[in-house]
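Lab notebook, bench 4. Still working through the backlog of constructs that have no structural model yet. Next entry is a single chain of 130 residues. Request: give me the structure tokens for it.
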Amino acid sequence: MTTDTDPRRPLAAFDGDVIARVAREMSIEEATLREAIAEHQRGVRSLPGVEDIVYEWRRTLPQEPLIARRTDAYFLVVNPAVWQEFIDALGLSENESDALRTVHDVQLIESVGEDAVPADGREAIVLTRP
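Model written out:
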């Protein structure tokens, strides 16, 4: 039996308490937020893949996006336009989109600490490593 904390599951990089708290604070069903996170993670995996997209962003984005790397996740910050492409592809409502971005932000801060996050307008993105 696999769970959301198994290393290869889409939600492995996300703490269940973080998801529950963000869902509550953003007035969204926890199951809806979990599905949005999972769909986003699956979408990244269906592109060139998690490892390849991180490599590509590190090579092409004007500022280093990688904040931290663990065996189960990458913690990055990207320009808002990068996020918008994912949001458009997912077809989320505004509230769902805001909750998805917020859960990434909160998870990044809880995982690496607020001091590690640059205050330059880029947005957090957490990618579960397959």
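Notes after review: The radius of gyration is 14 Å. The CA atoms of residues 16 and 104 lie 12 Å apart. Flag for follow-up if needed.
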